[in-house]
């Protein structure tokens, strides 16, 4: 079986093409012939062992796949690890049937990035109609869907943050009202200027460091910052209880695996997302398809911020 294996922790250079035995299927597990494997930013954290769940080498990365079961079901599944391969194993509760109307890239985009965006807005930030929302990394997998979902949920003003003019233009085309550069020297001022001088109600943030700190300072009283990643690998420095009290601010963290501990929550999110995608009101942005053998290049492109939308691997190449 062709696969990508990590034998030591590090950057994209540790993603090594290998031939491995087929995975063993245990009780309550499902074998999946992988048509496409999803690539997530979390995979880069797994590679250098900076993810919330520590890894042990050697392992095959990849937390999501779409493909077929031995009995012919077309499914999308969360695998934990093992997705960067021709065959993968997933726990039965994390395996979902894919309607014929949903293509592979959309299925992969919805199961992690779409669910994350939905949970950030509904569960973490409790977005109310008319509220202003800042979406950082708005051209990425989560961000591009969060912009669309915020619009559908009745957000009053959506401010997208993205690192290049092309990415900001994409965010505007998806429904953002304004787009700003997160590298602005005074990001707090840039956010407020994009909101007509006012502070904002909700921020979705996955960068950490200065972006977190300056976004927190831009919150209105009773504002919420929903934090779902730390792409910069930099710790925030402004998270002080006194700063939260000064504007009655809320900071909520979201790690998707915890959502599966609440019965029915992920299924509810996926049902909403699939319905919207089927109705053509929600679009997963294809970000590029890489051969399995070029997983390293995919990680390099993602870390260099050269990508948009949903990235996938083709295990047949």
Describe the structure.
By secondary structure, this protein is α/β, with parallel strands linked by helices. It folds into two domains: 127 residues, Medium-chain alcohol dehydrogenases, catalytic domain (Quinone Oxidoreductase, Chain A, domain 1), CATH 3.90.180.10; 146 residues, NAD(P)-binding Rossmann-like Domain (Rossmann fold). Helix content is 30%, strand content 26%. The chain has nine helices and 15 strands. Strands 3, 4, 5, 6, 7, 14 and 15 form a seven-stranded mixed sheet that branches. The chain has a six-stranded parallel sheet with strand order 10-9-8-11-12-13, sandwiched between helices. Strand 4 and strand 5 form a beta hairpin. Helix 2 packs across helix 3 and helix 2 crosses helix 8. The protein is globular. The mean pLDDT is 95.
How is this structure best summarized?
This protein is of the alpha/beta class and 317 residues long. Helix content is 30%, strand content 26%.
Task: Round the Cα radius of gyration to an integer and report it.
Answer: 19 Å
CATH class of the largest domain: Alpha Beta
Number of separate helices: 9
Mean pLDDT: 95
Strand residue percentage: 25-35%
Q: How many extended strands?
A: 15
How would a crystallographer describe the biggest sheet?
7 strands, mixed
N-to-C series of helices and strands: EEEHEEEEHEHEHEHEHEHEHEHE
Q: What is the CATH T-level topology of the largest domain?
A: Rossmann fold
* Alpha-carbon distance between the two ends: 12 Å
Described by the principal axes of the CA atoms, the overall outline is: globular
CATH H-level homologous superfamily name of the largest domain: NAD(P)-binding Rossmann-like Domain
């Amino acid at each position: 079986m062709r696969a990508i294996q990590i034998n030591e922790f590090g950057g994209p250079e540790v993603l090594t093409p290998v031939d491995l035995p087929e995975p063993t299927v245990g009780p309550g597990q499902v074998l999946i012939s992988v048509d496409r494997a999803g690539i997530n930013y979390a995979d880069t954290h797994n590679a250098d062992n900076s993810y919330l769940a520590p890894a042990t080498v050697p392992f095959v990365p990849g937390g999501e796949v779409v493909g077929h079961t031995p009995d012919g079901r077309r499914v999308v599944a969360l695998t934990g690890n093992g997705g960067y391969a021709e065959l993968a194993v997933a726990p039965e509760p994390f395996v979902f049937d894919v309607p014929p109307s949903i293509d592979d890239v959309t299925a992969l985009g919805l199961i992690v990035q779409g669910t994350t965006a939905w949970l950030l807005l509904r569960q973490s930030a409790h977005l109310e109609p008319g509220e202003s929302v800042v979406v950082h990394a708005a051209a990425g997998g989560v961000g591009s869907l969060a912009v669309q979902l915020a619009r559908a949920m009745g957000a009053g003003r959506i401010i997208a943050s993205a690192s290049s003019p092309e990415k900001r233009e994409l965010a505007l085309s998806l429904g953002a009202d304004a787009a700003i550069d997160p590298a602005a020297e005074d990001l707090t001022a840039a956010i407020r200027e994009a909101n007509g001088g006012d502070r904002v109600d909700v921020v979705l943030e996955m960068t950490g460091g200065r972006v977190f700190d300056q976004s927190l300072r831009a919150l209105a009283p009773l504002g919420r910052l929903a934090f779902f990643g730390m792409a910069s690998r930099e710790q925030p420095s402004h998270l002080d209880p006194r700063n939260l009290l000064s504007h009655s601010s809320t900071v909520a963290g979201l790690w998707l695996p915890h959502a599966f501990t609440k019965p029915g929550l992920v299924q509810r999110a996926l049902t909403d997302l699939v319905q919207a995608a089927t109705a053509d009101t929600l679009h997963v942005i294809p970000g590029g398809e890489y051969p399995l053998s070029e997983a390293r290049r995919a990680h390099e492109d993602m870390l260099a911020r050269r990508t948009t939308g949903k990235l996938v691997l083709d295990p047949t190449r």
